[in-house]
Amino acid sequence: MSSSNVRPRRGNPRISPTAYATAAAWARYGFAEAEAFDTCRGRGMLAALQLGTGLLSPFVPAVAAGPQLLRWRHAAFSNWVAAQTPRLAIEIGAGLSTRGQAYARAHPDMHWYDLDLPGMVATRRRRSAGRSPPPNHDLAEGDLFDPNLGASIARPEHGPVVAVTEGVVDYLDRAAKRQAWANVAALLRRLGGGRYLAEVYPLRRFLEHGPAARAARAWTTRAHATLCYDDTDMVALLIAAGFARARILPDAEVAEWADLSRVPALPFSLLEAET
To answer: Could you tell me the domains of the chain?
Structure first.
């Protein structure tokens, strides 16, 4: 089931700097095998993030939890995947996450693919030198904007298929979101159907909370090019991209997946879609 011959057609080959900060956060919070990608650079960026969110929190309560949000988000994604009991799982734009190899090691009867751009794949392989991945885990190049995304991944004989993107889609403008989601939907259809999870930061959550909300409303027009406005907007965009169904996961449904006690306000929503 190797996907080593996937070659991205488009995309930025560089590594997003945020990948280092999130990797440091995942190591700090003790996620399985995350120490492999914990770096001095990442810890420094994480400290800066914590300082910045601390300064902003009186004005924008949605960012008050700072790195704690990274912990909650990563745990929520991991526990959502586990709840699906997948036969095949694909993380697109996996970055420096070790979720896939840890899950694959614990579940040898399934297969996990981590896909990312060439620079990130090379960095992961370099930092993983000397560590043996489980045989049911593959790391390969893959571009979210490639209509042939994951073309060589084989359809499983049976069992659920899932795909996730964590910390990826909200860097994209609306047209790019729709294109990326269309490629994910096409991949899942080719694999016999499946479910997809992503997080998005609806603009309305920033506009409705805190003393900075009035000033933030003046920013709406510019930010709306990238951020979806509300939950209805996000679901509609996923349907337009080719998913048969989509919904926002209510906080009550996913609260058991992670400790929300230190998260005063969630700035993002979890989106689940299905083909």
So the answer is: 18-274 (3.40.50.150)
